[in-house]
Design goal:
The chain is of the alpha/beta class and 275 residues long. The chain is 40% helix and 19% strand.
Length: 275
């Protein structure tokens, strides 16, 4: 699935969460909103390909936090459940949903995590699962994806966004942390040391293998934040057009293997067999 540059330059309202306010229940300034647009345009466009058949869907956002994706998806007419371990994030989600006019029955907030998903969500009850920024914090990513497969209906889709090992190596090296870059390169989990806040990072082969082992068929792979994690924020903030140009550049390289290999995040859409 290729993303076009044109789609990345759509209006924030058309794109979704990158145009939403940042922060718990608060408003982002114009510069922050533009940076968010550049970071998430490719991701949102990929998610929209799953939702754009106009039929209301049951969507589960694991680790959905303050609702950057959940609220815009609910605004599109879908039914969304957010499972997140943070009560503060869920409170902010409910405020954001109320401020956006989302009906209470369209969005459900549940305190929980990936490992305990089946305590809150019925098996085979969900059409789309968002699992963004969760696997790198999970104690057992393989078991987590198996649970995701359990809650999906036949033919359902999971959207996985996970930290890329190669990007961490590049980032640590550019920051002058050369020993940490070597550790991230050699460590089986892609961690750069005991102070690393993430439990794991992945390369494309690892991520697609985990999904396959969970019985999910990979549909597409994208690189997300190829450039936006490297470009100084001041360059984007100084020119209102820069964010749109950067988003268009991200869209142009998202499905090119040579670029997604060093993207800050890897995004995969995978489908549960309908059989």
């Amino acid at each position: 699935m290729a993303d076009s540059a044109a789609s990345a330059t759509a209006t924030p309202a058309a794109q979704g969460p990158e145009g939403a306010a940042a922060g718990p229940g608060g408003s982002a300034g114009p510069a922050a909103a533009r940076r968010a647009q550049a970071r998430t345009a490719v991701l949102w466009q990929a998610v929209r390909t799953v939702l754009d058949d106009s039929a209301p869907r049951d969507v589960l956002d694991v680790g959905g936090g303050t609702g950057g994706f959940a609220v815009p998806i609910a605004e599109l007419g879908h039914r969304v459940t957010v499972v997140d371990p943070s009560p503060d994030a869920l409170a902010a989600l409910e405020r954001r949903a109320a401020e956006s006019g989302v009906p209470k029955e369209a969005l459900r907030a549940v305190q929980g995590d990936l490992a305990g998903l089946l305590e809150h969500v019925e098996p085979a009850s969900v059409d789309l699962v968002l699992c963004h920024g969760v696997l790198e914090m999970a104690d057992d990513p393989a078991a987590g994806l198996a649970t995701v497969a359990d809650v999906l209906r036949p033919g359902g889709v999971v959207s996985v966004l996970a930290a890329n090992r190669a990007a961490a190596v590049v980032a640590r090296a550019l920051g002058g942390h050369f020993a940490e870059a070597r550790r991230a390169l050699a460590d089986p989990t892609g961690r750069f040391g005991p102070q690393d806040p993430l439990a794991a990072r992945f390369d494309e082969e690892q991520l697609t293998r985990l999904l396959g082992d969970a019985g999910l068929v990979v549909q597409s792979v994208h690189g997300v934040r190829v450039f936006t994690d490297l470009v100084p924020g001041a360059l984007v903030d100084a020119d209102p057009q820069a964010a749109s140009d950067l988003a268009a550049l991200e869209a142009a390289v998202a499905d090119r293997p040579e670029f997604r290999a060093v993207a800050g995040r890897l995004h995969v859409l995978a489908r549960k067999s309908a059989a």
